[in-house]
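From the thread on structure requests for the teaching lab: each student submitted one protein with a one-line request. Submission from student K.M.:

"Model AhpC/TSA family protein from Sinorhizobium mexicanum, tokens only."
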Amino acid sequence: MSAPYIDHPLQPGDRAPNIVLNAISREGTIALDDFRGRSPLLIGLFRGLLCPFCRRHVAAMAQLNPALREKGVNSLAVVNTPVERARLYFRYHPIPGLLAASDPERATHRAFGLPLLEITENETEWPYKVGMDVVTTMRVDRPGELPEPMNPDAAAGFLNTKDGYEITEADQQVRIPGHMQLVGHFLLDREGVVRWSFTEVEEEGQNMDRVLNPEELMSAASEVAH
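Reply posted by the TA:
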């Protein structure tokens, strides 16, 4: 589907566009306009389920969902995985109560201004290009899951092996060689205006694969719920 494109993430005060996606957690479609005028919305935009960090971030959204719902805030997780593949995954890894949608074309990511990052050998122009020389210096720390802080590429390989995640043809279809989609969360008020965000774009890559701060999110959710 076509979507507007902007070259930077939507900021607080920006109005989110309407996007219509195939629902994963139920039949039919989900549109951002479904929530406009009705309730605030936390939208999490992720890479495909082949990304072990994104699988964990979706599960974390599901855990936060009940507390957000108490404040009247709905949640929607968007993954780049094709809808049938995603439905199969969530059949075995349920996310009770969390709405999820499929966006293999990355239309939502483009509309929210999340770049497709090019992986180069040694040229970095964040957030559009990053050199492997820089990636190897980054560290992801997940105590209890990783034996030690590791660079994102090594950590992803370790976790996929640990999870026994089998990458299928459907997963491969949405891979763009030499690139990685940057991701993030956006909290919209009842009118669909961004009030808070946390993305991988900020902090020159230091947010890569990091989870959001639940206390910060809940504080922002309390504000938009008023």
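TA comment: The longest strand covers residues 74-79. The mean pLDDT is 93.
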